[in-house]
């Protein structure tokens, strides 16, 4: 009951704040598109447009390669990631509900399988730990290294822009030899195992990934081309604060015009808005269901009545959640677009009107 009330209350906040966020983001993107200046030459710093929002496209550049001396890996890229997986026992559960003497009971069966997992699986939490013990830690840890001077032409990228470089691709180990006698290279993995084809629990396999291939000697392919929209501060690209209060610091791993960049951002804002709307509605629906569950409990001993009441309560929850969600969204739009807010409010009454038309009047009875 308490959880239902909490979810019901939080759904209003989620729906209302989401509408304000969506409109603010849309206004910031429109402002950005109207002000952005496209740079023709990324190798020239024009001090006359310092402080302005700029758009530029070109290949990434770093001064030194990233490397892992333990495995002999070296690559000219923005990021290098080492992924370590351990062969471990994994527990699976299969639950089913059944009725016995008018009481609903739950039965759970557990099964175990050995798999490669990057996270350590705690076998102490297994239903049957004996015979399925996993090591408590990995002998080799995962890590991600990033170059300190990632640039686009003459412009250094900010930390926020570097975080957007996540197009990780696995490094091929076909031409590499094993760095140590106890390590075996098989396909694109380094195996800490006596037999990679028949691993034992506790064995490790290590793979490497790179993101943002940059200009310079490389073992893969030409440098990645990126598109950036950010504020020019001397020879540095940083976040740009709009009048609406948002910060524009955008990077795409492809060549795009300024118009295409902002179109992509609008699409992302649209998808996020609808995802949060659906999430808010679902939270409200579940909250109402939990709050009305006591009515379901009262008729739990009468199977036919219980099923009818359960169906009725779900339809009630869906109807109320839809109406209240639409009303909350309408309130969020009220100060920005009042006409749209009025139309949404009218739409919110539809489920209530439909529900009333299905209830027979006393005269017909």
Walk me through this protein's architecture:
This protein is an alpha+beta fold and 365 residues long. The chain has helices at residues 2-35, 159-162, 258-291, 293-298, 303-333, 338-348, 350-357; strands at residues 37-38, 53-61, 66-68, 73-75, 77-100, 103-117, 143-146, 151-152, 155-157, 169-170, 184-186, 189-192, 204-213, 225-233, 236-238, 240-241, 247-248, 250-252. Strands 5, 6, 7, 10, 11, 12 and 13 form a 7-stranded antiparallel beta sheet that branches. A 5-stranded mixed β-barrel has the order 2-8-9-15-14. Strand 8 and strand 9 form a beta hairpin. The longest helix has 34 residues, at 2-35. The radius of gyration is 29 Å and the shape is flat.
Structural class: alpha+beta
Overall mean pLDDT: 87
Oligomer: single chain
| Number of discrete helical segments | 7
State which percent range the strand residues make up.
25-35%
The count of strands amounts to 18
Please compute the radius of gyration using only Cα atoms: 29 Å
Unreliable residue runs: none
**Strand-and-helix sequence, N→C?**
HEEEEEEEEEHEEEEEEEEEHHHHH
Q: Could you give the distance between the termini?
A: 35 Å
Instruction: Classify the helix fraction into a percent range.
Output: 25-40%
Sheet of most strands:
7 strands, antiparallel
Q: What would the principal axes of the Cα set say about the shape? A: flat
